[in-house]
Amino acid sequence: MIPLSVLDLAPVPAGEDAAHALRNSRDLAQHAERWGFKRYWIAEHHNMPGIASAATAVVIGYVAAGTSTIRVGAGGVMLPNHAPLVVAEQFGTLESLYPGRIDLGLGRAPGTDQLTVRALRRDAAGAETFPSDVVELLYYFGADTGQQAVRAIPGAGLNVPVWLLGSSLFSAELAAALGLPFAFASHFAPQYLHQALQAYRTRFRPSEFLERPYVMVCLNVVAAETDAEAAFLFTSVQQAFVNLRRGRAGQLPPPVHDFGGSVSVQERRGLEAALGEAVVGARETVQAGIERFVAQTAADELMITAQIFDHAARLRSYEIVAKLAAPGAADATAQAGKGTR
Question: Radius of gyration (Cα) for the chain, nearest Å?
Fold first, then answer.
């Protein structure tokens, strides 16, 4: 089994609050560390009642303080929402506090609606400057020559690993051009998965950051004792997707037994398009699904996400997945490309 990592959206279960969700996130990270997961990444979203990780760098610090060896990072920071210098300072601070453990994944989308983009005081067209913003951010992490008029302090010379995240071809091609590791969001947008991976690998240029292409793919995985139980747990994220499309985003709903009868044909097609790559089932089902997905993508690393209403069931899902990994998988992570740490 290739190295496994975790993507956490800090889901807020219905009836709970952000403090509850964030405590659950740190608890999951602590378990993930013991189970041998390589990374624990946190995603930036805004104005989403069911996601508690809007202040992504703050949450990363909270999780890193509660763990000791697992890499902690952003999956990702939505760069159009931020000045590159501020991001460099934030992650330079995190790297200074938790040396050798911080990753910075960068996304091009705002992670929210256009009204909220304006409330963030950012330009709605900020995605157009994403390539130059990434280059600027990389510059701030470079060596401090003493000649720069503007420096990230802390940040300069720390070489925080930077990843590009994507759900289309754009970031794949940019990651290839810059010689950066690439992570694809097949957990919600699998349509361009294989095209993006091919574009990244064929156009990759070795760089000071990375000698060869390095691909991480994110996948929804819900594991339980039986296929039926896993399918039941999976209805929480299915409901969340449908509610979002209906314009009624809310907290993560509890699972239901009759979900299929509550959605239209069009909504069912939308779910298949967004969540069609999900692996849901008991141990044997999950193992077969993950092995098939890894064989199809030739991924170097797999990032697992699981929005499960009940925290104990969520922990159990990740534990089942962790036990699928070969005994030496944790040691093998040290052999990954130099830019991935």
Answer: 19
Q: How far apart are alpha carbons 270 and 191 in whole angstroms?
A: 12
- Phi-psi sector, 202: left (phi>0), alpha (psi -120 to 50), beta: alpha
- Residue 141 and residue 160 in contact, taking contact as beta carbons nearer than 8 Å: yes
> How far is the C-alpha of 17 from the C-alpha of 127, rounded, in Å?
31
Quote the tokens at residue 1.
């089994």
CB-based burial label for 47 (10 Å; 0-12, 13-18, 19+): middle
* Cβ pair 11, 298 in contact under 8 A: no
Q: What is the Cα 248 distance to its own chain's centre?
A: 23
Across 50-76, b (16+ Cβ under 10 Å) vs e yields: bbbbbebbebbbbbbeebeebbbbbbb
| Alpha-carbon gap, residue 43 to 27, rounded angstroms | 17
The answer, yes or no, to whether residue 274 has pLDDT greater than 70, is yes
pLDDT tens column, 63-98: 999 999 999 999 989 999 999 999 999 999 999 999
- Enter the pTM of the model: 0.92
End-to-end CA distance of the chain: 18
Q: Is the peptide bond before 76 cis (omega within 30 degrees of 0)?
A: yes
Percent of the chain with pLDDT over 70: 92
